[in-house]
Amino acid sequence: MNNKVSFDEAVNELLPVARKEKIKTAWDRYEAQSPQCGFGLLGVCCRLCWLGPCRIDPFGEGATAGVCGADAHTIVARNLIRGIAGGTASHSDHGKHTLHTLIDLIEGKAPAYSIKDEQKLKNVAAKLNIETEGKDLMQIAKEVAAVTLEDYSRQDSSVGLTWAKQTLPAKRVEKLKALGAMPHNIDAAVSEIMARTHIGVDADPVNLLLGGIKCSVADYTGMVLATELSDILFGTPQPLLSSANIGVLKENAVNIAVNGHNPVLSELVCDIALEMKEEAAKAGAKEGVNIVGICCTGNEVMMRRGIPIATNFLSQEIPVFTGILDAMVVDTQCIMPALAKVTECYHTELITTMDTAKIPGATHIEFHAHSGIESARKIIKMAIEAYRHRDPKKVNLSSHKVAAFAGFSTEAIVGALSKLDAQDPLKPLLDNIVNGNIQGVCLLGGCNNTKVMHDNSFVTIAKELAKKNVLLLATGCASGALAKAGLMTPEATNEYAGDTLKAVLTAIGNAVGLQVPLPLVLHMGSCVDNSRAVAVATALANKIGVDLDALPVVISASECMSEKAMSIGTWCVSLGFPTHLGVVPQVLGSSIVTEVLTDKVKDITGGYFIVETDPKAAAEKLLEAIKQRRRGLGI
Ligand code: BF8
User: What residues flank ligand 1, with Cβ below 6 Å?
Assistant: First the structure.
């Protein structure tokens, strides 16, 4: 098999180490799965009841319906929206965990936590229409928590989700309500999908897709509240300099990778790591404890603390092959169960921490907000112990490490712009969009996928769009890829940005005192932090009195894979954005579903999916979508 599987040379260099040791990685497992099931790829396989499994012959020569009579359109639509429900459940579960940590704090049951950003709490309260005058912080937090909890528990279906209504433009909220796509309760939106896709319920593909749109609004809601409550508890990110790629592991430190999504644990691990420096030194690790990140937990701690990011989703097994990763601590989502087998061949401890996310072969250290400090200590002790058992024969150091700026929260972006216009911070951004110096904005997000070369599409699309003066934002594993590729630096702006974009990023860089341009790609955080990009877009839309679907803002998920990516992609379309997918979604078995997603949905939400697997062609299509929007605005 080809050893050049990635744009990231650190991956290409360490993969042969695994092959030599006969350890399988995601790329080998993908090959073993190939050719993948054609029915599954088209979405025409139904396993929802035990009459089946049923599958539809895509050539029309065999079965045209399952045993119950569901045809390809029904089956494809049901499969898709179940994926959206899965993604929504995941994000909203993350949000709920953060909410319950806040509630524990308010009730005095989470002594390790505090309100780190008081101003953010007040701003959030104001956004949720909670009066703050004369109230102490804990009272405000209590009321924010109560309003948030209602979005998970409201029974009155005539009332929409508060967080969605208060964070989206009024016109969008009205549109969603008119479509019947404004949920009243996040959990109810998920269970509604599960109920309507049971055998013998909703068979109308278009009605099912509308259900998917409604659920995706619940997904957006779970994400925005997860981001905002995390900022309250852990601080709102501000620009900082960090580093990226596997070379961030240090030979003379106890290396711990935090992997997953939830900052509730990783924040404590980072705090306690500082305290346990001496203990690590006693074990021989002169440089103490070195925390690095993987996937979205990595993005969370990078954004707030400048913790370096080692790698992203698809290459999460790779750091183990350096032989100097002492522990990988995982929380939830996108954690490959394969890590247990890979770490078994090394001294690396794999530690799971959540009741709902255990992996056979890993050590489980239960983590709860009330006893988090003890768990974090146990985890670090275990890593220190593992450090003593490193096998020098298995050490393969990687020199791949680049600088990466992160921390571009909405507040940080507005703060930087305010240096150009203190009274009206959005004006410089808007003026530069109107005069064409910035053609539009593209948010690069989403996963990695073995179906395309690792990290390659993100980098190609980013460079193509930057050349055409498109402002680039990134989240999730896209930001991991772009950070590792060195595109989150001022040097990348100088090298790849079109002249007018470069001038704008330089002007802002100078205004904030950097004396260099802002980075080519602004790191906005983890996947739940896609909500930060919506906040910027909403502020722009509100300023000029339009809905989100009028803005020259596009989304690209060029290596999408997870159910969470399905739900995010769907809400991007529900909110009105042209949304690129670089991997073919499993819907082609239904002409109706395919047509709705790529075309007809435009008429109802303004957004639509662009499916294009060639990254250069994708960049052209995204640019064309931006130009169309500009024409619509008459600019
Ligand atoms: O939430 S981008 S592979 S790590 S699902 Fe997962 Fe996809 Fe990465 Fe972050 Ni988002």
Answer: 261, 295-296, 313, 334, 446-447, 476-477, 526-527, 562, 564-565
